[in-house]
DNA sequence: TATAATTGCTCTAGTCACTATAGGTTCAAG
DNA sequence: CTTGAACCTATAGTGACTAGAGCAATTATA
C-alpha cells in the first residue's frame, strides 16, 4: 500500500475541481488559496486539502458569494468554537441580495414581454420598442 | 418668450437624467453619445435631444441591456425604414437571458434558504452552512 | 469689480473576477 | 535523449463604470 500523500499538479487540481488553471493561480495571488510547495523546477504541487478548499471556493462562487464573503468564510472556519452568527449574517445578507435581484429581473421580464407584445412587426417607425426605451413613463413598474 | 434653445451643462444633464457626470463623459468616449458643442472655455453644452438620448440609454441600462445592445438600438433607430425584426430579435434574446437568470437565482435562493433553515445557531464547528459550502452533494439542485 | 465657491476639464488608474497572450522552462513518456 | 505537453511569470484586456489628481472655467456673493 502506498503511504505517501497524493500529490497534484495545478492541471490535475484544475480538472478535479473544475476551476481553470489561471483562476487557481489568481486565487493564490489574492490570498484565497495558500501557496503550495514547489518542485525543484518551480512547479506547484498540491495535496488534497487544497482540493477541498478549492472545491469549497468554487461552490461558494457558484452560489454567488463574493470573494470577500468567501474570505470571511475561510476566516470563520478557522474559529470552530465561535458562534456561527456571523456566518448566518453573511448568508442572510446574500439571500436578501438574491431576492432583490430576482424582483428586479421579474419586472424587467414583464416589460420585455410587453415590448414584444406591443411590437406590430411593422417598421421601426411604428415599433413601440424604441418608444418604450425612450420614455420611462411607458413603464408599468419602477426600476 | 425665449426663443433660444435650452442649454444644459454636463452637471445639469446629469441631474436631469440621473446619470453621473463621469458616466456621461464615458458614454461620449465610447460613442454612445454624440460629442456636444463646447463653450469658448471648453465646457460641454447640451440640448434637449442629448437629454432624450441619455434618458433612453439610462432606461435601457436599467432594463439590463448591454452597451452593445444599446448601440444596436441606436443604429436601428437611425434607419426607420428597416424592419423591426432585428430589434425584436435583440429583445427576444434578452428576454431568454433574463428568464434564465431568474431561474438560476431562484435555485440559488432555495439553496440559501435551506442553508439558513438548517443552521442550529450553535458554534461554527457544528454549523451546517460551512458544511454545505464544502460539499456540493448537499445541494438539491444543479448549479 | 474682486474674490470665493462651485463646477468643469483631461488623464490616469482602480474596481471585480477573472481570461488571454507572449515568451520562456520543466516534466514525463517513449 | 528527445519530444511535446504542461508548467512558469508577467502583462494586458474584459465590461461598465468610478475615483483621484491637478488644473481651468464659470457663477455667486461681497
Automatic annotation (TrEMBL), chains A, B:
Residues 95-122 form a coiled coil. CDD domains: HTH_CadR-PbrR-like. SUPFAM superfamilies: Putative DNA-binding domain. The keyword Transcription regulation applies. InterPro entries: DNA-bd_dom_put_sf, MerR-type_HTH_dom, MerR_fam, Tscrpt_reg_MerR_DNA-bd. Residues 7-76 form the HTH merR-type domain. Gene3D superfamilies: 1.10.1660.10. The keyword Disulfide bond does not apply. Keywords: Coiled coil, DNA-binding, Repressor, Transcription, Transcription regulation. It comes from the Bacteria. This is MerR family transcriptional regulator.
Amino acid at each position: 500500500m502506498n503511504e505517501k500523500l497524493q500529490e497534484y499538479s495545478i492541471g490535475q487540481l484544475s480538472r478535479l475541481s473544475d476551476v481553470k488553471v489561471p483562476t487557481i493561480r489568481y486565487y493564490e495571488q489574492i490570498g484565497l488559496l495558500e501557496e503550495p510547495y514547489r518542485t525543484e523546477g518551480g512547479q506547484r504541487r498540491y495535496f488534497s486539502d487544497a482540493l477541498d478548499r478549492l472545491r469549497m471556493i468554487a461552490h461558494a462562487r457558484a452560489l454567488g458569494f463574493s470573494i470577500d464573503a468567501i474570505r470571511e468564510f475561510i476566516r470563520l472556519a478557522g474559529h470552530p468554537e465561535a458562534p456561527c452568527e456571523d456566518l448566518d449574517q453573511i448568508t442572510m445578507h446574500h439571500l436578501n441580495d438574491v431576492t432583490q435581484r430576482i424582483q428586479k429581473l421579474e419586472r424587467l421580464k414583464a416589460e420585455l414581454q410587453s415590448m414584444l407584445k406591443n411590437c406590430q412587426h411593422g417598421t421601426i417607425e411604428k415599433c413601440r420598442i424604441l418608444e418604450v426605451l425612450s420614455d420611462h413613463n411607458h413603464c408599468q413598474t419602477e426600476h
